[in-house]
Structure prediction request, 401 residues.
Amino acid sequence: MINPFKEALPILKKIEEAGYEAYFVGGAVRDHLLNIQINDIDIASSATPEEIKAIFPHTIDVGIAHGTVMVIWNQDTYEITSFRTESTYLDYRRPEQVFFVRELKEDLKRRDFTINAMAMDKNGQIIDYFNGEDALKKKEIKTVGNPNERFQEDALRMMRGIRFVSTLGFQVEKETLKGIVDNQQLLSKIAVERITAEFEKLLQGRWCSDALEIMIETKLYRFLPMLESAEKAISQLAKLHLTKLELPEKWAVLLLCMGVKDKQQIEMFLRAWKLSVKQIKTVQKIIYWILQREQMPTWSRQALYFATLSIAVSAEKIYQLLWNQEICSDISSIEEQYRKLPIKSKEELAISGNDLLRWTEKRPGPWIKDVLSLVESKVVEQKLPNDKQLIKEWLQRCHQI
Prediction:
């Protein structure tokens, strides 16, 4: 058995020694069978939360109402969830009640897709009641049981299904696809933050273009923030090779495909997705410098300096993608050009406002900012050395002080 399962194996054994069942479940089992990187280990057990707490001396109640207890073991943490079934769902997302059960099959049949409804015991044996291994071989996203029931229990599962297309390169099974089409409107009941989390994972997947095509085919995009009438933009986005772009760059490309370039419009769009102020400002800067780049044959020292390296690289990558349909030229040339700048920020300037006040008899005012900006520009352009005495002499010659 491979890590990280091997590291968690004592947890399973200890639960079994206490007279209960315990298994690895969900995405970790799926990724193990696909031979891809395993992130989080999930453990399911026939023991109730109180019984788990009696077995392990160090636990945290992270979601005990829904059957989850965090166990601290060898300085690592593991979430153990009791086998459970669920009652009717509230708001197409949360179960009204949770009932603890003792049978693994009852627990697995409440899960979303067959590829996520498998378990693995301490010996590495796979328990697969719903043909999840077969779905893996077919590269197929298929709900456990009736698609309408699964999506009406939790409408976010529709986004998750399409996200798995992007991250795994699978296709959605016919009846499951129909279930998405038939229940698409339920996505409007889901909190924006949860939709955003799934959409961002989708954007970062290797097969993002395939997922976006399915988003168009099912018309699920109509229930995403600000995308109700964006079929053309999403179709354009799907045709681009986005794999070399970072997440903020992908948001910028989506906005440009939609023709959204104004700073306030960008903010309004991204606020609808509940992005942070920091994320919004980053995307705004990227789009601003893409528009500037369109007016420049190449990056000037001033442009590189005021853009900053990370924003300039992002803008250049997107500029190349939109103009050439791929990121072709050597981005490292921008990095080299930036490295040669005499200063990288105003803080590195050899003089300050206090120096200007000492050198003159003027009172503080807007003139200080104007003079510092002039010096900053000249230093960046390498028309003036970044040396305090030389800057003072130059300002005197130019009658600036």
User: Anything to note?
Assistant: The mean pLDDT is 94. The longest strand covers residues 76-82. The first helix runs from residue 5 to 17. The CA atoms of residues 241 and 326 lie 7 Å apart.
